[in-house]
């Protein structure tokens, strides 16, 4: 078996990472992932494990488990990793592999598997063998390991994902197996003077000023989202174990043209489409709402982070929705009018979008978790109705061991009483939009997905004026 050991960089979990542990209150594991649809059979387990072993030392956190010593803060502890133990195969029943719903159901089973954070690094690579000659690979990991901005970037690096015409069946590592650990040794030689500089008076002052700046910007980011509470609807109930997925494959350039035509962004289009679809779902239940409160993650990259974790805060946006008809029977605002309104609102919010609310939120999450109140608070919150995320993926097609990746489907975790998550990822000119809903909404998911597509199509055909 191939084993690799991380650099000896034992350290405490950051405040944001401890916040993710506090967030892990169920009913399902705090797992994020991506489903990579392939143009051919998935590479063998041994080949994937060998690639991971060659590259794992370049992402130290992926070779660490989480330990929680009694009375102390949790910390990352490097360990020897048997990469073969993190790679497995799930074979779909005959006939199931040809149906997209069955592939997504298999992905749900993978993402619902629990984690033992103290036993091994919390990540897995699962081959989904469909029997059609076009398999899939699911990369799943606990959210403490990285975030949505880092899962595909780090996963692509570890899996050796390359452009399809790169040539070899498996991309060679940047350095040989023995030399892969040399950066850690070299880093140790320079870390000693770096640590000394970190404890200098000037460094202490800079750290204090940085903390003040973080608090000020974080408070401003949170204040930008202040407003009325989310309306209580039949969807406002604690989510139950299990969830379902639907995925839309959209033309990225088409969505981008629609957005720019309205002076908006792709994220604005997702807000209007997602909120509009939820409003239509409620209308079919006989409920009417004027707005849907959305949580929008805001990320800022952290240079030098080998695991590509961004600092992610949140913006709270009230997305207006159109009622089926006005009191006088006239149609409500068009999707174009709603997009113009939403774009103006998010432009004002984005002035405060720095990602610096992340440590403030993490502190609040961890504090509530220590008091045993976090689960109860999340199940009763009235801040948001849904979560809308938009991630930027590779602009060019990629491949695993020479097998082209035709489609990438992002999957976000769920928590509290938020039943609908809209997660988009751009990849090779396409926009993959995944809808995650709790299990009790399974029968309504096809209609929800159709409504999202209808709103996107309506915006694409709009030419103004509004």
From TrEMBL:
Residues 352-459 form the O-acyltransferase WSD1 C-terminal domain. GO terms for biological process: biological process involved in interaction with host; glycerol metabolic process; response to hypoxia; response to nitric oxide; triglyceride biosynthetic process. Belongs to the long-chain O-acyltransferase family. Its EC number is 2.3.1.20. It catalyses: an acyl-CoA + a 1,2-diacyl-sn-glycerol = a triacyl-sn-glycerol + CoA. It comes from Xylanimonas ulmi. Keywords: Acyltransferase, Glycerol metabolism, Lipid biosynthesis, Lipid metabolism, Transferase. Signal peptide: none annotated. Residues 47-269 form the O-acyltransferase WSD1-like N-terminal domain. Pfam families: WS_DGAT_C, WS_DGAT_cat. This is diacylglycerol O-acyltransferase. The lineage of its organism: Bacteria, Bacillati, Actinomycetota, Actinomycetes, Micrococcales. The keyword DNA repair does not apply. InterPro entries: CAT-like_dom_sf, O-acyltransferase_WSD1-like, O-acyltransferase_WSD1_C, O-acyltransferase_WSD1_N. It is an enzyme of class 2 (transferase). One of its GO terms (molecular function) is diacylglycerol O-acyltransferase activity. Pathway: Lipid metabolism; Glycerolipid metabolism; triacylglycerol biosynthesis. One of its GO terms (cellular component) is plasma membrane.
């Amino acid at each position: 078996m191939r084993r690799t050991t991380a650099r000896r960089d034992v350290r405490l979990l950051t405040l944001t990472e401890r916040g993710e542990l506090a967030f892990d209150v169920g009913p399902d594991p705090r797992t994020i992932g991506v489903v990579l649809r392939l143009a051919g059979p998935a590479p063998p387990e041994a080949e994937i494990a060998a690639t991971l072993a060659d590259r794992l030392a370049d992402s130290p956190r992926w070779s660490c488990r989480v330990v929680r010593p009694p009375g102390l803060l949790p910390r990352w502890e490097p360990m020897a990793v048997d990469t073969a133990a993190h790679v497995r195969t799930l074979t779909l029943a005959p006939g199931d592999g040809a149906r997209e719903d069955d592939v997504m159901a298999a992905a749900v089973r993978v993402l619902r598997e629990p984690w033992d954070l103290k036993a091994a690094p919390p990540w897995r690579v699962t081959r989904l063998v469909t029997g059609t000659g076009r398999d899939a690979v699911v990369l799943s990991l606990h959210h403490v390991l990285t975030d949505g901005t880092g899962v595909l970037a780090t996963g692509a690096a570890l899996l050796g994902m390359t452009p399809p015409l790169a040539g070899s069946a498996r991309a060679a590592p940047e350095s040989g197996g023995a030399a892969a650990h040399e950066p850690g040794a070299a880093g140790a030689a320079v870390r000693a003077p770096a640590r000394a500089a970190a404890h200098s008076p000037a460094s202490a002052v800079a750290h204090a000023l940085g903390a003040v700046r973080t608090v000020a910007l974080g408070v401003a980011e949170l204040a930008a989202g202040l407003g009325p509470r989310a309306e209580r609807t039949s969807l406002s109930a604690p989510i139950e174990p299990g969830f379902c997925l639907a995925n839309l494959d959209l033309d990225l350039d088409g969505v981008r043209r629609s957005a720019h035509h309205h002076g908006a962004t792709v994220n604005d289009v997702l807000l209007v489409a997602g909120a509009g679809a939820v409003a239509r779902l409620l209308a079919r239940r006989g409920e009417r709402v004027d707005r849907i409160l959305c949580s929008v993650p805001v990320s800022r990259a952290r240079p030098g982070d080998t695991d590509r974790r961004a600092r992610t805060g949140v913006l709270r946006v009230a997305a207006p929705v159109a009622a089926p008809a006005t009191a006088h029977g006239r149609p409500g605002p068009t999707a174009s009018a709603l997009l113009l309104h939403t774009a103006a609102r998010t432009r004002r919010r984005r002035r405060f979008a720095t990602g610096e609310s992340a440590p403030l939120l993490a502190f609040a999450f961890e504090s509530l978790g220590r008091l045993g109140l976090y689960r109860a608070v999340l199940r009763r919150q009235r801040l948001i109705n849904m979560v809308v995320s938009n991630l930027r993926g590779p602009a060019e097609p990629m491949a695993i061991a020479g097998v082209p990746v035709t489609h990438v489907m992002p999957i976000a975790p769920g928590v509290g009483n938020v039943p609908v998550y809209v997660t988009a990822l751009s990849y090779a000119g396409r926009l993959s939009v995944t809808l995650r809903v709790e299990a009790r909404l399974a029968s309504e998911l096809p209609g929800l997905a159709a409504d999202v597509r209808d709103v996107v199509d309506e915006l694409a055909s709009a030419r103004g004026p509004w």
